[in-house]
From TrEMBL:
Similarity section: Belongs to the peptidase C15 family.
Signal peptide: none
Keywords from the named record: Hydrolase, Protease, Thiol protease
Domain of life (superkingdom): Bacteria
Organism: Gloeocapsopsis dulcis AAB1 = 1H9
TM regions (residue ranges): none
Name this polypeptide is given: Peptidase C15
This protein's record includes keyword rRNA-binding: no
């Protein structure tokens, strides 16, 4: 079996949230991956509904990386205040900044509702991104990692967001 691209998502963390848009999108990708073979998606691995706690989420993802040895990793989180998909350029922990090794301008060049962000949020999303980038670096893994923040999905944006996200997956498969 070919090595998959690992996709991760979070569960909710606030009482008003009925779902987490990162998991909603990953669930849609999972469904499309199994039902629409014309999409030409690469093999995918899924780690859904991570706890919104940095150490636990990081541990789960790092263990999954060791288990499946993915060709690439796309971690996703919800950004309620954003209106587009955003790919994160860096993760910070204290004074240490780890940058994405991916040419993000090239990655998003043909995408319609995706932009580059330089603020991963100072919450569990940034903590997870930092932990995974650090793990990849210290273990000298050849698996590029990207963090994508997902806006709240609506009837108005879901098709464009899904299309851009599928293109991100396809481009990550070529790295």
């Amino acid at each position: 079996m070919p090595t998959p691209i690992l996709l991760t998502s979070f569960t909710t963390w606030l009482p008003h949230q009925k779902s987490n848009s990162s998991d909603d999108l990953i669930a849609k990708i999972h469904e499309l991956h199994h039902t629409n073979h014309n999409l030409q998606l690469p093999p995918l691995g899924f780690l859904r509904k991570l706890p919104v706690e940095t150490e636990q989420a990081s541990s789960y993802v790092i263990n999954k990386i060791a288990e499946i040895q993915p060709t690439a990793i796309i971690c996703c989180g919800m950004a309620e205040s954003r209106s587009q998909l955003t790919v994160e350029s860096k993760a910070t922990c204290g004074d240490i900044v780890l940058r994405s090794p991916i040419d993000l301008k090239q990655l998003i060049a043909e995408l319609s509702v995706t932009e580059i962000s330089h603020d991963a949020g100072k919450f569990v999303c940034e903590g997870l991104y930092f932990a995974v980038l650090n793990h990849i670096t210290t273990q000298k893994l050849n698996s590029p990692c990207l963090f994508v923040h997902i806006p709240i999905l609506t009837d108005e944006n879901i098709q464009k967001v899904t299309k851009d996200f599928i293109l991100i997956i396809q481009k990550m498969a070529l790295l």
